[in-house]
Specification:
With 375 residues, this protein is an alpha/beta fold. It has one domain (7-369): Alpha-Beta Barrel (TIM Barrel), CATH 3.20.20. The protein is built from 10 helices and 9 strands. It has helices at 5-31, 67-70, 103-115, 131-134, 136-145, 162-176, 245-254, 287-297, 346-349, 352-369, and strands at 53-60, 118-125, 149-154, 193-196, 216-220, 232-234, 258-259, 262-263, 308-310. It has a 9-stranded parallel β-sheet with strand order 7-6-5-4-3-2-1-9-8. Helix 7 (245-254) links the parallel strand 6 and strand 7.
Length: 375
């Protein structure tokens, strides 16, 4: 045993990351993607994988950074923590605290997303020229290799207005709309999708009339009276309270709107937001995730929705991630694991929610093909 635990763990973390990246390393290397990504690279062979659903969307966060690439930690230190062993999350990534600008990390993410049967990510986006906007070119290029498409989760940056959101939608379309990984809904006129987080902070969304004809703009609310200027609704929160959801689904069908309820495995933000009063929603070894998915698809709560949004692929601060979690995290920090989820142990538990997502995507696709009566 080494006399320097920190040095030992850094070396061990590097070893684990190389093992976890595995095929993603080969795929990106073969495609020639590095600091300057190549959108013309040949797609990765995804034969044998579940055909991805374009109606199931992961909320995806490209906001993480490391000292090697950013000169300091970005996001992992949230809550006053000191990475790499001590991070602002109650779970520890299988990849360790990574950089969202690392092509190999993004490739590993896309491979896992395909494994889950999900065809679209809605990437967190905080304004033109921002940190997350700078991650988009690489994200699009690597997503294209794996047959994954990119939609948009418009976040409440400082000074955001309805008018600035219209400008943002135009900017995103102009800058990225020609990319093969740019998501366009084939069932709805090949229009791109934009989720608007915290939309209720703005009262008047009438400026959206300028872009609504060519875009699907979705509001974060369960109050249909606030959805007048939007193409649909989503809730984002991981919840087991489905009060009013049948009414939302019925209203959306009657008014030509999209209902995209959100599902997730649980919620815990104790380490990232000390003192936060947001209630924890335990994972219960997968029971919570199954309950939310089955409720979303049930006739009682409105029947099969148009889309299902998943909170989240990798929002580590809130413990809602599906991304694989280390079953052997750094000791002494109280990290939780996925051990026990769906009866899995050890390394097999790390991908428990990823694989369970594939199960539910299949059920959703089958139900959508022959939806039951919703009367």
């Amino acid at each position: 045993m080494t006399s320097n635990p920190s040095s030992w763990y850094a070396a061990e973390l590097g070893r684990r990351r190389l093992l976890a990246l595995g095929a993603a390393t080969a795929a990106v290397s073969a495609a020639g993607i590095g600091a300057a990504a190549d959108a013309s690279a040949a797609p990765v062979n995804t034969a044998g994988l579940l055909r991805p659903s374009l109606d199931v969307h992961f909320f995806y966060y490209p906001w993480y950074g490391t000292p090697e690439r950013r000169g300091g930690w970005v996001h992992w230190q949230q809550g006053g923590h000191e990475p790499p062993q001590d991070i602002g999350a109650d779970f520890y990534p299988k990849l360790g605290p990574y950089d969202s600008g690392d092509p190999l990390v993004v490739a590993r993410h896309m491979a896992w997303i395909r494994r889950a049967g999900v065809g679209v990510i809605a990437t967190s986006w905080w304004g033109q020229g921002g940190y997350e906007d700078a991650r988009v070119p690489l994200l699009l290029d690597v997503a294209a290799l794996f047959g994954v498409q990119v939609a948009w989760h418009l976040e409440p940056y400082g000074g955001r207005t309805a008018a600035s959101t219209v400008d943002d939608i135009r900017y995103i379309n102009a800058r990225y709309g020609s990319h093969p990984a740019f998501h366009r809904d084939p069932k709805r006129g090949d229009r791109p999708a934009f989720y608007v987080f915290n939309s209720l902070a703005i009262e008047d969304w009438s400026p959206l009339a300028e872009v609504n004809q060519d875009n699907l703009v979705i509001t974060q609310t369960t109050d249909v009276s606030r959805a007048t200027h939007f193409a649909g609704l989503y809730n984002y929160a991981v919840t087991t309270d489905f009060t009013g959801w049948k009414g939302i689904a019925d209203w959306c069908r009657a008014n030509g709107r999209i209902w995209a309820p959100s599902v997730g495995p649980g919620y815990r933000d104790d380490r990232a937001v000390p003192g936060n009063t947001t209630p924890t929603l335990p994972h219960d070894d997968g029971a919570t995730y199954d309950h939310i998915w089955s409720s979303v698809l049930s006739v009682e709560h409105g029947g099969v929705p148009d889309w299902v949004s998943i909170t989240s692929f990798n929002e580590w601060h809130e413990g809602s991630m599906i991304e694989p979690v280390s079953s052997n995290p750094p000791p002494g920090h109280g990290y939780e694991t996925f051990v026990g989820a769906y009866g899995r142990r050890g390394a097999a538990a790390e991908t428990a929610y990823l694989d369970r997502t594939r199960h539910w995507v299949r059920r959703f696709e089958r139900a959508a093909a022959s939806p039951p009566a919703t009367g």
